[in-house]
């Protein structure tokens, strides 16, 4: 189990989904709370890439290994095989669209196999645009920027989880590499501001 907060725990050997404009920030947060390599799978044709300067407040960029499949059909295959190998504790698939139920089920099974390989139980994270919607995922999270002045904040929503109810927090980064502090959402935090696409949201 990956414990991010007293009220947020993500089961390992399962596949989760993050959506919203700050979905990559959610992935960075997870990476910062884990150890070992992070395999980040992104289409070769995707022009937006992670900026190391934006990654540093969350995790060491040197831990990241990038795979860039040329074909759309290879994205899910690469994700499945990475989870099955158990070589990376965190496998992130930055997808152009949510996958169907069958590929998600295959990834769950692959993650379970990877957990038996001796390298530690992996966690799969699917990054999907918009509101996401991949069927069969263990949990679905939506994250959007809500920065105020010089304070970096995000609105975090748990929209789906097998073992927990829907809930919303305001996540604040107090200092680098310390994770995010979560608090209740207030009326003044509803107005978010978008960040530059070249930095980590």
Structural account:
This protein is an alpha/beta fold. The chain has a domain at 2-140: 3-Layer(aba) Sandwich (Rossmann fold), CATH 3.40.50. Helices cover 21% and strands 28% of the residues. The protein has helices spanning 23-32, 52-55, 72-85, 101-114; strands at residues 2-5, 8-10, 15-19, 38-41, 64-67, 90-94, 123-128, 139-145, 153-161, 167-172, 181-183. Strands 5-4-6-7-3-8-9-10-11 form a nine-stranded mixed beta sheet, sandwiched between helices. The longest helix is centred in the middle third of the chain and has 14 residues, at 72-85. It is globular. The two termini are 25 Å apart.
Low-confidence stretches: 189-201
Which fold name fills CATH's third level, the topology of the domain at 2-140? Rossmann fold
Tell me what the CATH architecture of the domain at 2-140 is.
Answer: 3-Layer(aba) Sandwich
Number of helices: 4
Q: What's the gyration radius in Å?
A: 16 Å
Structural class assignment = alpha/beta
* Spatial order of the strands forming the largest sheet: 5-4-6-7-3-8-9-10-11
Quantity of strands, as a count? 11
Question: What would you call the shape?
Answer: globular
What percentage of amino acids are in beta strands? Answer: 25-35%
- Summarize the biggest pleated sheet: 9 strands, mixed
How many angstroms separate the termini?
25 Å
Q: Helical proportion? A: 10-25%
Report the top-level CATH class of the domain at 2-140.
Alpha Beta
Mean pLDDT: 87
CATH superfamily of the domain at 2-140: P-loop containing nucleotide triphosphate hydrolases
Helix/strand order: EEEHEHEHEHEEEEE
């Amino acid at each position: 189990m990956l414990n991010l907060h007293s009220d947020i725990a993500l089961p390992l050997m399962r596949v989760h989904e993050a959506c919203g404009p700050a979905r990559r920030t959610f992935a960075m947060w997870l990476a910062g709370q884990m150890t070992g390599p992070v395999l980040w799978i992104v289409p070769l044709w995707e022009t937006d890439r992670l900026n190391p300067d934006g990654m540093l407040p969350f995790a060491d960029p040197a831990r990241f290994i990038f795979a860039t499949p040329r074909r759309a059909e290879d994205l899910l295959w690469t994700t499945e095989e990475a989870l099955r190998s158990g070589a990376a504790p965190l496998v992130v698939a930055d997808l152009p669209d949510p996958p169907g139920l069958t590929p998600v089920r295959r990834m769950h099974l692959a993650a379970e196999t990877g957990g038996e390989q001796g390298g530690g139980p992996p966690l799969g994270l699917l990054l999907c645009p918009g509101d996401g919607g991949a069927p069969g995922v263990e949990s679905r999270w939506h994250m959007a920027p809500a920065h105020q002045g010089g304070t970096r904040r995000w609105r975090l929503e748990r929209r789906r989880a097998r073992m927990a109810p829907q809930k919303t927090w305001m996540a604040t980064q107090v200092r680098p590499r310390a994770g995010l502090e979560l608090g209740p959402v207030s009326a003044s935090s509803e107005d978010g501001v978008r960040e530059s696409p070249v930095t980590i949201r």
